[in-house]
């Protein structure tokens, strides 16, 4: 029965190698890996292991991927959730979901709980009260204050808007480590394109470095999208490998999509 239960636990196979660029961020996370792998070393020294880490920055830059890689590197159980899924119409439902999430994570520790869009529950409280959201946030704070140091649980929250978050969430002992994850620079874009073309047949005339130069301002998610679009186009064009024509068209398509989206926002 235990075996069967274990099969249901999500243990990602993603490793830091699958995350391109972000060298400084990875460096910072090596410390967290050591905490998770050797907690007693820190307990003996009277050191507290961080409970909460915030990843903040623009969308599609690898926040989810990094959280999965952190679980993969430490053989931790991974519990993904999204802030928006906690906030329901009925008061108390979100709080109950938070409680049950932590219960499961405690049973399978070491665990990593990943809460995407944490601003959906963690935004600053306003005078206009929202009982459901406030109760959900309170429950999250209670859970984070409550787990013992022998239980290795790290909560990673992700947001595009650090400035929106309630101070209570950022206090020591809660989400007190903030890590910025930004859009990739030239070298990182090249590395991301390499990761996403690794298992695809690429025509030798395609110069990945040149593609990286032409994709300034795009995120890792956009670059992964370009590699995939190019592969689909190559199939459509009956090619045996992805050529520069397919990459050109894929880049145009992704950039055009972005411009349309910006036009709507403006
Ligand atoms: P959001 O803020 O929208 O939730 P995110 O920062 O969590 O986005 P991810 O979901 O991690 O972004 O990234 C989306 C996809 O983009 C990944 O599954 C991966 O394919 C690709 N990607 C993004 N960043 C990287 C990276 N640094 N290395 C490799 N692939 C990346």
Automatic annotation (TrEMBL):
UniProt subcellular location: Cell membrane; Membrane
The keyword Nucleotide-binding belongs to this UniProt entry's keyword annotation: yes
Primary localisation category: membrane
Binding site for ATP: 57-64
Assigned keywords, A-Z: ATP-binding, Cell membrane, Hydrolase, Membrane, Metal-binding, Metalloprotease, Nucleotide-binding, Protease, Transmembrane, Transmembrane helix, Zinc
GO molecular function terms noted in the UniProt entry: metallopeptidase activity
Cofactor dependency: Zn(2+)
Cofactor binding, per record: Binds 1 zinc ion per subunit.
Domain of life: Bacteria
Topological type in the membrane: Multi-pass membrane protein
UniProt domain AAA+ ATPase: residue ranges: 49-185
Tagged with keyword Cell membrane: yes
Known function: Acts as a processive, ATP-dependent zinc metallopeptidase for both cytoplasmic and membrane proteins. Plays a role in the quality control of integral membrane proteins.
Family: Belongs to the AAA ATPase family.
Subunit structure: Homohexamer.
Listed name of the protein: ATP-dependent zinc metalloprotease FtsH
Part of the full-length chain shown: 50 to 315 of 496
